[in-house]
Amino acid sequence: DAKTTQPPSMDCAEGRAANLPCNHSTISGNEYVYWYRQIHSQGPQYIIHGLKNNETNEMASLIITEDRKSSTLILPHATLRDTAVYYCIVRFDSGGSNYKLTFGKGTLLTVNP
Amino acid sequence: GAVVSQHPSWVICKSGTSVKIECRSLDFQATTMFWYRQFPKQSLMLMATSNEGSKATYEQGVEKDKFLINHASLTLSTLTVTSAHPEDSSFYICSALRQGAKFFGPGTRLTVL
Question: Do B46 and A45 touch (CB under 8 A)?
Answer without folding.
Answer: no
